[in-house]
Amino acid sequence: MAERNAQQQLAELLEVQLRGGSDAGGVGKYLLHRAKPHIPPWLGWAGTGLAGVLGHLRWADSAPAAVGLTLGSVVLTGATWLIGKNASQQRRLHSAITVAAGSAWLTAACLAGPTASPVGDLYLMGGPALALSWNVRLVLRHNPDASGEASDKGLLEKVGLAKAQIGNAKVEPNRVSAPVALEAGVQTNDDMTKALGNIASALDLPTSAVRYTPDPGSARRGELVIVPEDMLAEVAEWEGPSNLGGSIADPLNVGRYDDGAPLLIWLPGDPEAGRNSTHLLIAGGTGSGKGDTALNLLTEILSRRDVIVWFSDPKAFQDFAPLRPGLDWGVEGGTPTEVLVAGVEAAIPARTRWLGAHGYRQWVPAAAQTQNSPEHTCRPDGRPCGCPGMPFLVAWFEEAANTLRALGDDAFTGIAQEARSAGISLVVSLQRPSYDQMSTSTRASLPSVVALGCDARDEGFSLPDEVLAAGAHPGAWGNRRPGYCYVVSPGIPEDRYPSPGRTRRFTHRAVPVMELLAAWAQRNGASADPITAGAAASVAGRAYTGRAASGTEQPTGLRAVEQEGDDMEEGGLLVDPEDQDIDPEAGLPEPEAGDDAPIFGQEAGRKPSPEEARRLFANALAEFESKGLMVVGPKDFTDWCDAHNLSRSWVSLRLKEAAQEGRLEPTNTTGRWRIVPALTAA
């Protein structure tokens, strides 16, 4: 019976809130709604009077009818008493008295007449009294001030919070929220958090449908949120970006919450709204919908006019191939990703310096426009400088576990700590953001997270403890509900953090739309500004080319070889560049040390003179640079050593010498060096 009462109380609460809140379009509607629960006793009173009139017309002089009506009155009263055995003693007695009084009056009215004295007087005085008694009972049940107890005492008592009080509820579509005050000195917000599962069980709702947000200013107050209907069960397919041509400062719509509200994420900060720029972690186990979530976010980003994207995907753009033409810089895993990381690191101080010189404390949409305002000029005289604008930059590392294994668990630490002030957002996507893969410093610098289904033991790696305590449990989904997620990010109200959402699904029907979006980004999207492009080129050389214009292709692969061959046919040299200074009539050089057979215990290979060594190694570095291979180590020189009859140990010494001369810089990986582009080194 207690469980039935709890469910009945919830039904009444949802009915009052969901219907009453939506009908509050006028005073008349509101009053009618509030009067509805009190009408049934009065309808029973009126119906009993009508039955007395009709019964008197038919049975006024019938002795058998008198016997039948009397027996019926006794049986009905007894049945009411028996049926109410599971109700409270008070309700059982009240119901039996009401039925006995009504049936007795009906018997008298049928025999003596409804207007006969004192039958008519009893009807006019006793009937309203009984109806009002039921009205008072209803008022006391829903009015904590009148009853001295919360209206939901049965439910809260069932979960061990009998003296907790629930205040006036706030109504939204498919969402009821109400303030809760726990018993002072006895209960805390932790008690309410621990009871959420039991409340969901008592209401016959999923665990994720009941959430509690503690009040940061109180240890016993908070807000209870109930979502009676899961609106995420139906899959929604992606149909296109939400704000084509808008600014990256506008919210990115990546899905919807369980009450139907849009799921929004902001990347840049807003000084007027007091919102900081953010980095984003996308975490979820295999099959949790992480790929579709990433596509939702990336398509939203590429649809904006003032942003560029640098993207690393060790899976060779398996999911993102239709969008690749819209990226400003897209690389696969390994060495190209290492170069991209170095490019982001170089862009941070360059962009920060530019923003500071133009009077921006953080990136705002005005920074992406040509600087024609005296308020944002780098000229000492205060006149508009006319500098090209600087678009927002998103540095995205897909399947980042691969990159972290290659570069170390703190590969993104510097970027995560410094990039936000430079108008750069870091997006890191991986399955398990545990501390053995990602350093604690990096994880602490990623303030935003999209947490999809995962192993229950990994929840703490994705979401803050207070969000988990408020009712968020991505471990309950695993990979059974692809796209279900919790989002924690600046700009989202904190009471939304434990609310589940769901991203849209990408099917084969989305591929043509993504291709059109990439073409739109080529024609209408932002291009890298000179500062950002120069910083990238300073470390990547020809590996950074920028986004190709629509309808053109970068001269890579076979096309680059063909173009080089065409240039040679039009007047280029017919010999290798390294042999162009050789005199074909000159004799062979004298033998040098190391040209003969190697001594036992020594590595094979000739030892050139210092001058020749510098020339050979400089040519090798220039060759690697021309191919866009900007991070090298001894193993990359294997074929080159074979071609020039040199040893890898000789190459290792030359690498160290080149680093001392500024032509190479060490990387995070031992034995790997980054080539400094020739112009930068000069």
UniProtKB/TrEMBL annotation:
Binding site for ATP: 284-291
Region feature (Disordered): 574-610
Biased composition (Acidic residues): 574-584
GO molecular function: ATP binding; DNA binding
The keyword Transmembrane helix is annotated on this UniProt entry: yes
Domain (FtsK) ranges: 260-461
Residue stretches spanning the membrane: 42-59, 65-84, 96-116
Keywords: ATP-binding, Membrane, Nucleotide-binding, Transmembrane, Transmembrane helix
InterPro entries, per database record: FtsK/SpoIIIE/SftA (IPR050206), FtsK_dom (IPR002543), P-loop_NTPase (IPR027417)
UniProt-recorded name of the protein: FtsK domain-containing protein
